[in-house]
Amino acid sequence: MLDIDRDQAMAYRIAAQGLHRDSGADPVALRVFDLGVQDDQRGSAELALLARLDGDPAPAPGDDDRLVLAWSHRGAPHYHRAAEFRALITTLPPWDAADAAARLSWQRRDLAAAGMPADEAIRTAAQALRDVVTRTMTKGAASEAVTKVIPDGLSLWCRRCQATHIHDQLMRLATPLAGVALEPGSSPATLVPLRPRPPLARRPDPRAAAEVVRSYLRLHGPATATEAAGFVGTTKAVLTRTMWPDDLVDVSVEGRRGAIPADAVPLLENPPEPNTVRLLPPKDPLVQARDRALLVPDPAHRKEVWKILGNPGTILADGEIAGTWRATRSGRRLDVTMTALLPLSARARAAAEDEAERVCAARGTESLRVTWT
């Protein structure tokens, strides 16, 4: 077993995720797309690329036809390489009813209301979405149409919408299985059928599913099966039985045992110095790791980084998540408020402000005002 300390693990992850900007200016070359880059309506994926790419500003992922946006891991919107997306779809069907219930976060009452096992519910919804979404449709229009053709137990009354419609998470999990992606930059969310349509995904491909876990371990390792399962959205029992790769090396991080793919060991043993300063968005791949205590050891600081609602961006400085940041737009000016959680040198603060200038350019604003708190 390989023994390392936390500093070495952090240095490895920073390098593995391309935060040294050593991948040039081509977003498709970034290793984070091996797993996918989560997005939200504030453009978090664009800022994640900005933190990793040369060039000013970095290209918007929605403008690159080599990338596709879809509900994928945990039903969250992620950008993926378009050339690999059809293979990824084959990793997303549930393995069995228990796996499906875990991915849906369904309780016994939900299963009783559905009147069918959870995996059958996902397949039923996927077939209905495939039949209904034959053209570009807003999420609301697709939801309304599919609710009319699915069994009553797969829909519910929504107080916010004041309407009965398909369970939201059920729709998110079923949509990629139906061969449907999302239109980048659209609000509300808009569904787009893939052309040509792939076959309806009913059963997972074990080899492709193991590659998803391998990518998680390569980007977020050393990590445990529990942590990988948390990212995928299933349980440890399901993941270890169906998706856990067999070409792994055991690693101890200050007594905490994890694993990493064998081909990642050379970088883990000799990572470059993590002397970079980057502004990361709330959904950045680095903070998607499930071992938050390794990323941010101080419990009080973790509460500042991961909030119940409205996470801030984070300041990565010299191997640590050393602060948070938020940006608001006032006309043509971008106001960025930075909060240090750890002591920051004058050099690190200056570098963070330089990164804010890049964010300003990416957001299309003309002037920047930075405030430290």
UniProtKB/TrEMBL annotation:
Protein name: Winged helix DNA-binding domain-containing protein
Lineage, broadest ranks: Bacteria, Bacillati, Actinomycetota, Actinomycetes, Pseudonocardiales
